[in-house]
Design goal:
Largest sheet: none
Strand content: under 5%
Radius of gyration: 16 Å
Number of domains: 1
Number of strands: 0
Length: 70
């Protein structure tokens, strides 16, 4: 599970940088790299989107398995 979180985080960073480049320079890095392969470009966007969904789980506090009770 640690590798999935690491890859998801990396893809979220790539997505954030790409959106920053689009916003500031109107230049799409993913399209510049994979534009000649539209299917690969679509897969990259899909993976970045799924990583964002995975990232939501990183924001939710984990329940303690030790019990402890309140």
């Amino acid at each position: 599970m640690k590798q999935v979180s690491w890859i998801a985080t990396l893809l979220m960073v790539v997505g954030a940088i790409n959106w920053g480049l689009v916003g500031v320079f109107d230049w799409n890095l993913v399209s510049a790299i994979f534009g000649s392969w539209p299917t690969v470009e679509m897969i990259v966007y899909l993976l970045v989107g799924l990583s964002g969904i995975w990232g939501i789980s990183l924001l939710v506090p984990k329940k303690s398995s030790m019990g402890g009770g309140m």
